[in-house]
Amino acid sequence: MSPNDPALRLPLPTDGPLEAPAAWQRLRRTCPVATVELPSGDEAAYLTRYDDIKALLSDPRFVRPTAEDGAARIAPEGAGGPVANGDSSLALANRGEEHLRWRRHVGKYLTAKRVTALRPGMTAIAESLVDDLVAQGQPGDLKATVGFPLPVYVICDLLGAPAEDRDRFSYWSDAFLNVGRYSAEEAKASYTDFARYMSELIAAKRAEPGDDLLSNLIRDSAEEDEGLSDELLLNTGMGLLVAGHETTANMIGKMVSMLLADRTRWESLLADPSLVRTAVDEALRFDANFGFGVRRYLGEDVEVGGELLPAGTTVVCSLSSANRDEQVFADPQEMDLTRTPNPHMIFGAGPHACLGQSLARTELQVVLETLLRRLPTLRLAVPVEELQRVEGLLVGGLRTVPVRW
């Protein structure tokens, strides 16, 4: 990362809605630690190689940036939600023993075994949503009718939140993850409404506990000396609702679009449905529209890719570029639905790896299994190049996924 190198600007341009930026391959080969300009105008270090990113994310010294760190801002002045702006009031115990304790409390309710028990309910929801898609007629919007509501229903069921509030959750999620879609004032008002809603939901769970995740966390906290504080319960509820909805809702649309963009992929799954599990992980690896990447703030000097990055540097890790690293994956530019092993890093790595990855994988598998069974003739209703990316959010997605069957 030479001081004389011109900074790239995020998000990097692509040749199509499902295509990877051409710059990734060049950066991995010649400039694995680059300088990028964020929408705010601030600069950050940009990592594109698998090994460099895995090493940094696995280092417990480095955590997500907060405004108090003086880290590079993503959103421009006057815009941006609390996640983009590094609002430390949302921090989920992100350091040391406190962080490990939080992960133990929450993670035991998101294990693969517990998520497997939710699978029949997910399948019933997916069946009902496909019924809705068919009833509304052709062409239909797969994202709006199936991709968006399914994760909302699932996370609401998990948390014990009423699913009829899903439109409010969608707005709050967008405001949370906003880079330029809403003003800072709109995002702040949304956060206030969301926090009030979650506080009232937690109070209701205390009064009448159920068998949902929030009720269990409240019960655990009351019974243990080192349980979650009220503030941490609130932030956990808000964080899980946003994370459990927005990324998976967008990924459903992207996954189906990737599989239908080259319909031989869809045909291979129809011929062998046992490939669904590896196909889902390959879609996660192949996704070139993940968003801005994962950020870390360097509280001390660290060497990355043979280069010394000074304390105070904000680093953006491109997980999607890492997932196409030629040093790790054979033929990384090809979508291989049989790929195994598939050590992609879309869920991160190290002490901050995504707690909900079993839940996300299972939702994606259930949706794909249901669509293959119910709508084997599914196809995109528009040319791939006419699909439009979501703009103005930290996470990547498609605005609509028009389909016929």
Overview of this structure, please?
With 405 residues, this protein is α+β, with helices and mostly antiparallel strands. A five-stranded mixed sheet has the order 1-2-3-8-5, with helices on one face. Helix 8 packs across helix 10 (230-243) and helix 11 (246-261) crosses helix 15 (357-374). Residues 1-5 have low confidence and may be disordered. The chain has 15 helices and ten strands.
Which secondary structure elements does this structure contain, and how are they paired or packed?
Layout: E1 8-9, H1 23-30, E2 33-37, E3 43-47, H2 50-57, H3 96-107, H4 112-136, E4 140-141, H5 142-147, H6 149-159, H7 166-176, H8 184-207, H9 213-223, H10 230-243, H11 246-261, H12 263-271, H13 276-286, E5 294-297, E6 302-304, E7 307-309, E8 314-317, H14 319-322, H15 357-374, E9 379-380, E10 402-404
Parallel strand pairs: 1-2, 3-8
Antiparallel strand pairs: 2-3, 4-10, 5-8, 6-7, 9-10
Helix pairs in contact: 4-6, 4-15, 7-8, 8-10, 11-15, 13-15
